[in-house]
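We treat protein structure as text, and this decision shapes the records that our systems exchange. The tokens are whole numbers drawn from a learned vocabulary of local backbone shapes. Below, we set out a record of this kind in full and without editing:
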Amino acid sequence: MPPLAALARSVFAPCALALLAAAAPAQGSNLHVFDREDVLGTSMHLVVRGDETSAKQAESVVVAEIERLAAILSRHDATSELSKLRLAKEPVRASSDLREVLRAAQSWMELTHGAFHPGVQGLSDLWTAAVKRGTRPTDAELAAARAKLPAKLWEIDDAATTVRPLSDVPVTLDAIGKGYVLDRATQKAQKLDGVKGLVLVIGGDLRVRGSDPGTVDVVDPRAPAENAPKLCTVRIRHAAAATSGGYARGFGLGGKHLSHILDPRTGEPVTKILQATVVAPEAMRADALATILNVLPIEEGLALVAKEPNTSCLIVDANGKQHASPGWADLVVGPEGAAKKAEPARAPKPELPQPSGPQIWLGGELKLAFELAKPAQEGGEGRRRGGGYKRPYVAAWLEDESGKPVRTLTLWIEDDRWVDDLRRWAKLYRGHRRDADAVTRATRSAGKYELGFDGLDDQGEALPAGKYTVLLEVVREHGTYQLVKHAIDANGAPFDVALEGAGTELASARVTFTKSEAPKK
């Protein structure tokens, strides 16, 4: 693999996010990468193995299928089948797709005795309204909302192809619908002539198809920055992975972050689980289970996974302790797992030391947070249902006081042929990073990313205190170019500054340094 391709497919690329994915290519095959933003409200990464024409056709098929299913399953689109179903008083015609997802959701409701419940959207709406007024919902409000959650939300009649709603409670299929989309979109693309394999990642959930396995990095929920060290790496084939956790989204109340994942049985945000990752034959199953494992007690969750065929999980509790199902170790790549034994031989690649543990430098954490601007779309925003838009190329790095580049934080580019479009980075700096086929993490909002810095230069040596410049370069194919930067004095003192010049391709960008909390005794 060329050095630049190795860098572009590194763990320092986003999903998802943090989303770069690629099935291991067979000898003589071609790999083609496609990145998009605002796909089902998050980011999409697609890697196709095959000829270039087939790969581009596969991207078109994937995007078209995502948009088709978004028009059926979305709770945000008032014209979707799901939205119309909620407003109906009588049985309504429903597509086979909607009936299949509704039936699966009902099955998980029954199997978990309400720990999984699409009607949790009503509780989420209650929390959103309460947080806006600066309070938590009252016990009476929570009790009233829980009382509205029925044991059964709909009746499905496949012979008549109809669904009859049994309640007008707000519902969401977010915890299962994305998995269904991954399964269906990859299934259609895999059937194309010339497509030998593919990996599709949407918001950190992913589906691998083809003869080659994919390696998947699991994000550490205690350090979820796009380029932070990962918890572990697993290898999967013809399967899916999904991760759910409350660190990427949630409610801010009283200076504290509360998980967006609610226990339907109590109405409260979950607190005992930081993250759950599931590997399963289908993305829809992995998607639902990842959410369920955040709600159930750990032992109950592990017992549930043990009953599911060819399914494994890793749960990280609130104290950071890992709880794995019996089959998990068979997937893990490296000394702690067995998957390394089955890894096919590959030519050695240049690698740099990978940091482990928290991203601490000078007694604190340096972070670069930014949001990509959403481009205008021909025909108006109403045309963008779920397929999103092409993500720009991005490079972020640090330079020392003399202007010498010392550390690349990330490089996101689909094809190394276009790296020169990142004018300053391409002129100054090239490097190597460890390959990662995909990263599974909790879903975050579209276009919003965070990068961390561990204090090491590109040779793995510690950088001293001093003056540095943080640079962020963004270029859109056939579009605009933007370079923003800010000089920082890294002396251990906290700071929080905006990078000037955001507005064209960047909605915002900030670099912060916060002192680390002293370890608890």
Remarks:
- Residues 1-28, 340-357, 378-384, 431-437 have pLDDT under 50 and may be disordered.
- The radius of gyration is 23 Å.
- The chain has ten helices and 25 strands.
